[in-house]
Fold this sequence. Notes:
Blueprint: E1 2-6, H1 16-30, E2 34-41, H2 49-57, E3 62-67, H3 73-76, H4 84-104, E4 109-112, E5 127-131, H5 140-148, E6 152-154, H6 157-165, E7 173-174, E8 193-198, H7 207-221, E9 227-230, H8 236-245, E10 252-256, H9 260-269, E11 270-275, H10 285-292, E12 297-300, H11 305-309, E13 316-318, H12 323-335, H13 337-354, H14 357-372
Parallel strand pairs: 1-2, 1-4, 2-3, 4-5, 5-6, 6-7, 8-9, 8-11, 9-10, 11-12, 12-13
Helix pairs in contact: 1-14, 7-12
Amino acid sequence: MKILIYQPRVSYYVGGGEIYPLQTARFLAILGEDVTILTTKASYLKESDYFINFKKNNPKVKIEYLELDDNFKEIYDVPAGIDWERWDRESLWVSRLAYEYLLNHKYDFVAVHNVIDTLAVPFNQKHILELHGSPEDINYICKLVLEREKELIAVSQNVRDKWIALGANPNMHIVTNAIDDEVFTKVDKERNIDLLFVGRLIPIKGIQFIIEGLKLLKDKYGLTPNLKIIGKGPYREELEKKVEELKLESQVTFAGLVSNEELIDSYQRAKVAVLPSYDKEGIMSTLLEAASCFTPAITTRKTSMEEFAGDDVNALLVNPSDSEDICEKIYMLLTDNDLRNEIATNAFHEVRNHYTWLAKTKELLEVYKEICKKSI
């Protein structure tokens, strides 16, 4: 099968919506499919280290670029990852170039990863829209586009239900996020990072409630665990102010973006991963990464994380935006080695049995083949 994955952001941005298409491209190629990624390139866009390493390590995946001139630059002057309008503007204008590309190149199947990105796909081209998160609402352009889109995949039941409520076709497939279990592995190391957060530094990730939970742990139990925060984003300054106001500077480290080696090492040395995102998420890649490294996690009841965690089986669940609940769950895991080992063991086996990229990519491929059999 000749498959195109159109994702204009994978060249320069790293998030769940970028890792997912890159990993599926990798494993589609391993399964013997002819895979091409179509993305953006410009003098003012810096390729991410993740994408550079992906290209180096996956030579069977072809990369095609949409060359952006200075007419597009104002789009990219706005920082990525803050609001949907920025993404939608990029999708709208870059899709004009992608549409021309698809008129001149034939593929059996095209996968896209943002609603407005589907404007790039000609009407006679078989394709699917893969939905990675769920906004509170969508603008009228997205609503109009969704009226046309009949073939959809959501990365969780929660994401599926929210998009259906926003007007998407209810006949939607579900294929969850996954993990590269050969990279994120269990290794016996000293667990000298008490608490670990990994993700973008934006409000919905809930980092502010971890910091407040640290203060409560100190006041209520006299515990002073260290917290390592990996990631970057526009909320960092506010978070640093909160750490300073609560006098937690000796406990909190802002590591910024780190190499993949340091990321994996941090998971392997962490006693507990705290991932209290409270909006828009599928089953977070970071939750699966922690589990695959035998690190128990705390996450929220909101969004899709309950689908992985179960009833406090594969992770401990907290109420969204609840620093007191976070405090109590951290206390439970840090002071109970048996519970920590039980959660880590359950999550590790759940990931290895049900959330590997190879297994999920096989599921995706079956969906693609099913759609290709249908008439347009």
